[in-house]
Specification:
By secondary structure, the chain is an all-alpha fold. It has one domain. It is about 75% helix and about 0% strand. Helix 1 runs antiparallel to helix 2 and helix 3 runs antiparallel to helix 4.
């Protein structure tokens, strides 16, 4: 999955950058704005954003403010704190995934369209469902790793 994800993220960022480049050249240099270009860039931009978050979740590189690590003295305490953080993330994430599913069902039912090009926005809304589902799977995997480390025998020197 990693090579495919890296290629997909690279392609998406190139599409968005190229679209923005075309927008700047046509609007400010040629003074001929391209109608609907910003709207069409919404799709790859949101997929890039969501898949970037999934990638950060997979690599466990999300930005964290672990202030408690300053006060925790042992590796075991740090692992427990990380496991508690993963549980809280999992609870909130599952709740948000449920909301994203409801929103995607609503979007499919009413078949929302973009204002200028009339593109179906369902394809953007489903990215959130897919992204949240993948992030919750990776979060559960990280939680299992923390729990295995916590309960491993002879792992910690307390």
């Amino acid at each position: 999955m990693t090579p495919f994800a890296n290629i997909l993220l690279t392609v998406l960022i190139c599409v968005v950058a190229l679209g923005q480049f075309v927008q700047v050249i046509t609007r400010y240099v040629l003074e001929i704005p391209v109608m609907g270009l910003e709207e069409s860039l919404l799709f790859p931009t949101l997929w890039l954003y969501v898949l970037g978050a999934v990638n950060a979740s997979r690599e466990n590189t999300h930005i964290r403010a672990n202030v408690l690590e300053i006060f925790l003295t042992t590796d075991r305490h740090n692992q427990i704190q990380a496991a508690v953080g993963e549980v809280i993330s999992l609870i909130i994430g599952v709740w948000l995934t449920y909301w994203a599913c409801d929103y995607a069902k609503y979007s499919m039912r009413v078949w929302r369209e973009s204002p200028t090009l009339y593109l179906p926005t369902f394809w953007v809304d489903v990215s959130l469902v897919l992204g949240m589902t993948l992030m919750m799977l990776f979060t559960a995997g990280h939680l299992i790793t923390h729990l295995r480390t916590i309960f491993a025998k002879d792992r910690f020197d307390d």
